[in-house]
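If you are new to this repository, start here. Below is one unmodified record pulled from the training split, so you can see the exact layout before writing a loader.
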Amino acid sequence: MVSGLESSLWYSIVTVAISLLLGGGLAVAERLWQQSTPRWFLAVMMLPVFLPPLIISTSFILLPLRLYTPSAVILAFSYYNIPLAYVLVHSAAQRISAATTTAATLLGANRWQQWRTVLLPHLRVPILGTAGIIFLYCFTSFVLPLQLGGVHGQTLEVWLYQQIYIYHHYALASAVAFGQWFILITIIFISLQLQPILIMPKFIPEQTQSAQALFRGLHLLFAVVVLVPILTLAFKLAWSIRLTDFTTLLHGQFFAAWLRTLGITGLVIAINIAIVLISRMGTKTSLLLLSLSPITVSFIWYQLFGKGYISLIAALVVAALPMTAILLDQTRVQSRLFMTTARLLGASFIQRIY
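And here is the target side for that same chain:
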């Protein structure tokens, strides 16, 4: 258990540092140089957030990398969380008023002084929140450490899996999982209480040819890094698949299962969005759910509710709800006054959504 705890802490801390430095750094640099972000780049950076861990680990196995080491796990974690850090910090940075940086420029402040005196006070809490989300994702991750970590790189979640499903030490695993949840949520809640988040209007992009060229290059570089593992896996599958494989899928249950998966996914998305909009679920509740051990929660859920579509859909709703709330939180907070006014004027829930 101690070894798994050490690995979990090491993976999480290093990944947080790398993700904030690269992903968060790019978002802050765009704001300092007042550069607009292409929609295609935002779409590419959002892609890893929604990819299953099994696809990521399989694509990394196909790449010419040194696998089954702690560095492989950190690399896979960074692949997931650098785009997430960029998206969250970018969303917060774009809402800082241009008047503040313009005033600092007129007063003779350089880029470093603008960052230290203008941007950092506004971004301190969003950056801490992003760090907390990434830390929780890495600390409670199971698939990536299991497939890429090797014998000496197992995390606490892998240890919990072994205790529950191999050794059947249910009481010990439950106690450790509860202790993990309590410690994680205490750390995150303390960091969130430092100061309130400030929401400001968006800025007007600054048109500088040299800066635009530099950020176009950075956008292209980040996009290539994100797309290479996915495209490698796609080309490998396209090269190795045969006509008999399609025939097997056609006569099997693949397409029926695929349609059921699409239906369940669409239903889960709709339920999650409705819950977030109706309940006004915030970041604290999202982090509370993210702190739970997926392995332990899934085992307890199965023991309580068993199998079946209802149990599956409910479990998926609970699992996807935190990230849905986090991604919708900025838009929901920004339009709170407008939504309240619309409600007071008699607009229905559907009308407020549209």
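Two things worth knowing about this chain: The chain has a mean pLDDT of 80. The chain has 17 helices and no strands.
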